[in-house]
Amino acid sequence: MVRVSVKSQGSFSGPGAVGAGVVVAFLAITIPPAVWVVLVVCVGAGVVFYIRHKTRKAEQDRIAREQAEAAERRELDTHLAKHSRTLSVRYAGLAAANGYGTPDAPAWAKEIQRFADSVGFRPAFLAPEMVHALVTAHVEAQRQQPSSPQPSAWPAEAMNDPMAFEHACADQLRALGWDANTTGGSGDQGIDVQARKGGVRVVLQCKLYSQAVGNGAVQEALSGKAFAKAHIAAVVSNAGFTRKAHELAAATGVMLLHHTELARIDEQALRLRQAYAARKAAAAPVTASEPAGTPVERGIMGNVRKSA
User: Fold this and answer.
1) Measured at the alpha carbon of residue 127, what is the angle toward residues 56 and 58, in degrees to the nearest 5?
2) 108 inside domain
3) Stretch 119-145: mean pLDDT, rounded?
4) Same domain, 255 and 161
5) Which of 198, 184, 277 is closest to 232 using CA atoms?
6) pTM score over 0.90
7) Are residues 266 and 165 in the same domain?
8) SS3 sequence, the chain?
9) Are residues 99 and 161 in the same domain?
10) Is the same domain home to 117 and 185?
11) Do residue 213 and residue 139 come from a single domain?
């Protein structure tokens, strides 16, 4: 019973084929040629309409996909603009760890995924390979446009010796025009490097680590800032920083810098000078008997510190 049923379903022969042939022959005899022409034209028109419809639908889908990809790229560009500095620091850190000037591919891919997860970027149309390429291209372009002025080349030996790392940080600041000195390994009240330029005093806490730096270094830098009556305190490291370190730094104004970012201290010092100039412009005219010292030194060393 089962075999007969399967065979009858899988073949079209015997009485069925004969019956179909009879029907086709009957229609061919009874239907006038003009009707056949109309039928053929209608079928042809239907086929053409179907093909055009499918082509138009495919074009609409392509345009919609391109628009969706463009929207996701704009969203990605917004996230990249906001987190460009952090990505550049992570890229530089991974490149330094690799030793060949470029980050280890799996580690960088993992960092890009962590970035996407952190900002909530979950593309539905951009392929992961495209996201990786766009992020990498953005970071490499940013690295080709460094701030001015720039520190000198970073010595390789500084990445193996904490004392050499401190001296290298001081050398970088000197290259930027700062009068910088190390504390000679004493770690004077949390200060590894002291620097001064244009009335602005800076203290650095230098950390050559193989893992993320914690908030203890931020506390040391803050203590050193108070002890030296400095205007800027920063923790400089070859590694990243923990979440708690970022939270404490944000609350206290301590800068967290990758060792390739020391030029940012110049930017912060410039902001302090601009803030002083704005306050001076809004204040009453200064009398002829001004105190000694440059205006920047008097403003930053006095007014800025009193407001801190």
Assistant:
1) 5
2) yes
3) 87
4) yes
5) 198
6) no
7) yes
8) CHHHHHHHHHCCCCHHHHHHHHHHHHHHHHCCHHHHHHHHHHHHHHHHHHHHHHHHHHHHHHHHHHHHHHHHHHHHHHHHHHHHHHHHHHHHHHHHHHCCCCCCHHHHHHHHHHHHHHHCCCCCCCCHHHHHHHHHHHHHHHHCCCCCCCCCCCCHHHHCCHHHHHHHHHHHHHHCCCEEEECCCCCECCECEEEEECCEEEEEEEECCCCCECHHHHHHHHHHHHHHCCCEEEEEECCCECHHHHHHHHHHCCEEEEHHHCHHHHHHHHHHHHHHHHHHHHCCCCCCCCCCCCHHHHHHHHHHHHHC
9) no
10) no
11) no
- For the segment 28-36, the average pLDDT, to the nearest whole number, is 73
Tell me which residue range forms the domain holding 208.
156-272
Structural domain includes residue 34: no
For residue 40, being part of any structural domain is answered with no
Number of domains in the chain: 2
Residue predicted with more confidence, 73 or 149: 73
Summarised one tens digit per residue, pLDDT across range 188-223 is 677 999 999 988 999 999 999 888 899 999 999 999
pLDDT digits (tens, 9 = 90+) for 154-172: 777 888 889 999 999 999 9
Alpha carbon distance 56, 63 (integer Å): 11
Distance between CA 168 and CA 161 in Å, rounded?
A: 10
Same domain for 91 and 163, yes or no, is no
Location of structure tokens 């704005």: 278
Instruction: Note whether 137 and 160 are same-domain residues.
Output: no
